[in-house]
Amino acid sequence: MTVKAMPTPEFLKLAETASDEDIDRAQRLAHEWLLVEDALDQADIRHTIPIFGSARIPAPDNISDYDLKERRCQNLSHYYAEAREVARRLGQLIEQRQLTHTKLVTGGGPGVMEAANRGAHDVDHQSIGLNIVLPREQHVNPFIAAKHSFEFQYFAMRKMHFLKRAKAIIVFPGGFGTMDELFETLTLIQTKKMPRVPILLYGKDFWQKVINLEVMAEHGLIDPADIELYHPVDSVEECWQLVAPIIETLAQTHE
């Protein structure tokens, strides 16, 4: 793929005292952003629906292949099946409506990410994978087209690409990484740094146990209205009812 020219050190220099190490880091950050941005622009991808979730949740038929730590997640394996079905249905609608500029996107790894890319693959929707280099757990799943598979070193650049084109966000159960993605998004919307988009928390029982924003609101740490920034859902059908109209709107407006 064609990559835009690297920014010059003069453009990136923040101060006369900036070290070579700082300038090099800034160049690498800029290059990582531009590499993916150029590829998505060339593919005319204007809208995305990110699907977040744990790398540890196994497929229901693959539990025996997971090591001891991942086996603790086997009671969550139904979320793998449901993420796959959600992506299959949304990907099918995108393809039926011939929205070549709209894509499902995941973190590109195993678990829920694999499930979503796999569901899209089931209906020939070429979804995007934004992978990241990690010490363990993260590897590229086989259900992403090579031209739509990207590898990041920096979480910040990865999250920016997740959100720049997002029209709706579906968040399945996950750990620190999933929480990071969720609360980054909530913060950006709360502070009006990005447009408000629907955020669906899939799995009401899980999310009600894990987060309680009502406590923050009670103490005045967030506004009561901030609790309305996300919508708990508990089934493929419920998720479909909220996201499918967004896809239809894109089709009708020809955006």
Automatic annotation (TrEMBL):
InterPro entries: LOG, LOG_fam, LOG_family_nucleotidases
GO molecular function, one term: AMP nucleosidase activity
Protein EC: 3.2.2.n1
GO biological process: one example: cytokinin biosynthetic process
Keyword Transferase belongs to the record: no
Chemical reaction(s) catalysed: AMP + H2O = D-ribose 5-phosphate + adenine
Keywords: Cytokinin biosynthesis, Hydrolase
GO CC terms: cytosol
Coiled coil: none
Entry similarity comment: Belongs to the LOG family.
NCBIfam families per the UniProt record, alphabetical: Rossman fold protein, TIGR00730 family
Listed PANTHER family: CYTOKININ RIBOSIDE 5'-MONOPHOSPHATE PHOSPHORIBOHYDROLASE, LYSINE DECARBOXYLASE-LIKE PROTEIN
Protein name stated in the entry: Cytokinin riboside 5'-monophosphate phosphoribohydrolase
The organism of origin for this protein: Aliidiomarina soli
